[in-house]
Amino acid sequence: MSYEILRFLHVIGATVLLGTGAGIAFFMVIANRSDDPRLIAHVAGIVVLADTVFTATAAIVQPITGYLLAREVGWPLLSGWVAASLALYVFVGLFWLPVVWMQIRLRDMARRAAAQGEHLPDAYHRLYRWWFAFGFPAFMAVLAIIWLMLTKPSF
User: Fold this and answer.
1) Cα separations (Å) of 143 from 80, 88, 139, 140?
2) Which 8-state DSSP code applies to residue 79?
3) Considering only CA atoms, which of 61, 138, 128, 64 is closest in space to residue 97?
4) pLDDT for 22-44, tens place per residue?
5) Is 134 exposed, middle or buried (0-12, 13-18, 19+ CB in 10 A)?
6) Of 55, 124, 65, 66, whose CA–CA distance to 93 is shortest?
7) Are 138 and 92 in contact (CB under 8 A)?
8) Cα dihedral 68→23→113→98 (10° resolution)
């Protein structure tokens, strides 16, 4: 595969990760503000689907296209900005995997509350706060990775 095609796929993957992450966070936060279990259940269902279809796919494609790009250009994987990007990528994964689990649990709790005509349980609100908190370091790390990709600093 040519350098241009690999770079295109890698940039598209980074864009999908950033855009889907921002979109998921926005819609989940706005739905949560309604405190309506039916709305939250619906939005959380879409969020889980989007994470599965878009984020997971991009998360798999990114290291593959990154590795192929590095090999094509001759960038060492374990030093400099490439190594920093890889470390941040692992960091993102350590936050993203629990977030996926949290989103599924939040969706299920909202579905139960909606089906029973009840308010969201306290456990929902506690887990939502954890979900919200986990999003910030992961999102900042994705931004840092994109900055590294664009600037390729020498250190």
Assistant:
1) 17, 10, 6, 5
2) S
3) 138
4) 999 999 999 999 999 999 999 99
5) middle
6) 55
7) yes
8) 30
